[in-house]
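Record type: ASSEMBLY
Status: queued
Input:
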Amino acid sequence: MSAKLQADIKEICSRHGNDATRMMDIVREAQLKLGCVPGEAMELIAAATGTKRVEVESVVTFYAFLSKKPKGRMVVRVCNDIVDRLQGFDEVAAAFKKELGVGFGETTADGLFSLEQTPCIGMCDQAPAALINDEVVTSLSPDAVKKLVADLKKNPDPKTLAHRYGDGANASELVHSMVNNNIRQKGEVIFAEMAPGAALKKAVAMTPAEVIREVKTARLRGRGGAGFPTGMKWEFTRKAAGEKRYVLCNADEGEPGTFKDRVLLTECPDLLLEGMAVAGYAIGAQLGIIYLRAEYAYLRRYLESVIEKRKAANLLGKSILGKAGFDFDVRIQMGAGAYVCGEETALISSCEGLRGDPKNRPPFPAEKGFMAAPTSVNNVETLCAAARVMERGAGWFAGIGSQGSPGTKLLSVSGDCKRPGVYEVPFGTTMADFLKLCGAEDAAAVQVGGPSGQMIGSADFGRKVCYDDLATGGSVIVFNPKRDVIEVARAFNEFFCEESCGYCTPCRSGNQLLRERLEKIAAGKGEPSDLDYLTGLCRTMKVASRCGLGQTAGNPVASTIKNFRAAYEKKLKPAADGLQPAFDLAAAVSTASEIAGRPSVHAD
Amino acid sequence: MAKPKVATASLAGCFGCHMSVLDIDDRILKLVELVEFNKSPINDIKKFTDRCAVGLIEGGCCNEENVRVLQDFRKNCDVLISVGECAIMGGIPAMRNTIPLKECLDEAYLNGPTVYNPAKKIPADKEIPLLLNRVYACHEVVKMDYHLPGCPPPADTIWEALVALLTGKPLKLSYELIKYD
Amino acid sequence: MSATFTFTIDGKEIKGQPGQTIMEAAEAAGVYIPRLCYSKDLRPHGSCRVCTCMVNGRPQAACTQPAAEGMVVENNTDELQAIRRDLVEMLFVEGNHFCPFCEKSGNCELQAMAYRLGITAPKFPYLWPDRSVDASHPEVFIDRNRCILCGRCVNASKDADGKNVFQFVGRGEHKRVAVNAEANLADTDLKGTDRAVAVCPVGAILVKHKGYATPVGRRSYDQKPIGSEIESKRK
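Status: finished
Output:
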């Protein structure tokens, strides 16, 4: 064991107080320093933090951005989500392979580059995109890939890549990213101006119970997808027994096609932090944590600077706005590449330095969440909306949107539309109106709410975006009539296969089984009975899975079968003579035929 | 009225399931009253001479010949039954399913510690059926109507199944008769 | 202790004690709810999902869901039994389960659950994953082909043995049980007498040199279905 390794690990661990609950930070930094977290490092980390090597290994092997085996100095992660695939992923991937001379999962001989694929990195409106370490490169083409690989070979520092910066704060010194916001429509709840502290001032003039009542009166519901009433969540958290309380901001948007939180973090960090402080005041928390997905690491320094500014302005820290006893601080917890951590209890596990496994419920986070203390986990957009509710009042807020769904919703739109980007629309907007707005009049299918949502056809375009009808966390992916919905379902299934935590049987195994049968159908070997088989499998996954990810993982398949049955039926034919169409004798004997040097006597 | 016909085959199996058929003891006399055996190793009839009511399949498919035989059974039998673990899930032969075929053959004929093979050749005579890339359960190759688990299924299981099918009663195995070993 | 309460399972009235899960209250009343990962005296893991019941119309795992006054629980319904069959079949096809020669056969809870549910062959295709065997330890071996990721060894090693020999690594279909060493079980402080070894419901963690000790016919589940020991207590 080298002395340098020992010193490096010791330094990293001690900087995090040798605290096993800060394992995510420790292993992330070890990965950064060493290019991987090898067994020796796990041993040292375990010794320093008073845990076991296998516990460290369990964390390292859970997250896609961590590895036991050495990675190149620059890790290229090409986004392979469905929108990127429709817009040139294959060509871009081929260009990376050609320029780097390696395939996916490989590292160049000089140790400079590793090439990988990654699910949605939140750049669907500027696809194809990739991450190179923390840097985001967007709107890629084979030519762009050629140039950027040449640049990186000359100067192996991805930070120097962006030659033009994106709009808004993307161009600011601490971000310096080529990412664009593409805000297409601003509404009055989220994208309106607010002077820092305006909502907090109103809040501290009330009692915490009054703040909660205001949010309840506004009937604000969670914007992440599940739609739980925010005021009620805060009330449960406030009333639960415990000495400490926490506000956790879920900035782990990983649902393919969702990127509205990225834009909020870029353009509205003050509004978000305002909302977190209001939540902290309402529930009696002293600490807030922003769980920032690893793909958005490029925003970290910028967000930290906003936190610092707000501390300086007494909008965070001790006795906020002079209110004695109102102490509230915020820190950022980085993720490490795991979609499931957007599930609130998995997010808590990750914040505690564990694998991102969801927890058993009950107890619910409001009762026993982060570090077993009462915790309110809220989406970025929810917290922004909560700040606005405080500023403008519940009555004003409730006047916007539709009956059961007050306020506005951010929709991130991508796919086959003329104007991809982020739209703030009042709840109650019909899908047809919205498709006109974003330039997608010829849409044949729309995935609402990402893979875990539903795929709807034109028969449903009259439906409204709201909690009681087309509920969505914000992802809208448009497909034109030329797209193959079965291929879309397959891409989403592949995503869930990758991202299932593997904890419970129906999700871990069910997704693999869906994949097998979809492959069979795509290969033209499907039978009519396969649709009942798939529908039954989706039903078992929905009823029996342990968390929301698993419960919704069958949705892309179930909803395309329901709404696009004809597309499936076109590919199905009854099996002949009681044979299994999926069994392919020629393929099954091909290896043996090659070894024996003669053809099969039985295969056609 | 002609007696219903029964055919049997052992694919990638050990004949243990066929032994279990014989294990029905003196009931075999009653069985012969009930049915007539067509293609089967029991009477050594090699080819189907008539359509059969029931086909009993022992063993999974490990080579191309197994596949052909099984498909032939599917064509010639009204009801086809997987008998025993090998037919149902591949059984012992399927232990190779997690290992690439080439590696299996290399180990068996070239690299194994007890191999004597001066020619350093993997047997490839055209009389030897080509192996499949893995061992397949029967129901992965053709539609199977029933599965009788066990290694081998107890004689009582086979008896009850045959009697039920031949007398047109529903096939429902009791707890004691569903065993995988 | 505060007062007991009543709720129903499949229409039958059950008395519950405060703090009891549905599983515990049902078991005390002689009602068997099928389960695989759950083991008395261990923290409920909630991973196999076989104990999924409808609780006031919503699916919940009986092993983790607290019982409460007036709850209406559905357990033995056609739909739930069909889902349980799916789950058990999933566990069979996503591993490599060779019952005919497994030392645990006849005493295996996975196999017994399949018997109880009347499974003769899975409707799902066999996935044949590549899984490893660790026979390095003098007293105990791990055969990951048979592992159903129930977490009993992980929790027992941590909570009962105080050792943390086992933990899960990887995720999704790549999730597996790892040991607290670079590679081998032999390099851990596991003992054959550890609780973590005894709790394995399948043949994935077994004590060596003890296989096939009980004759066929006299093993745990040869004659009576798993759960009948609980059902026999029913008044």
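Annotation: The first strand of chain C starts at residue 5 and ends at 9.
Annotation: The CA atoms of residues 19 and 98 of chain C lie 40 Å apart.
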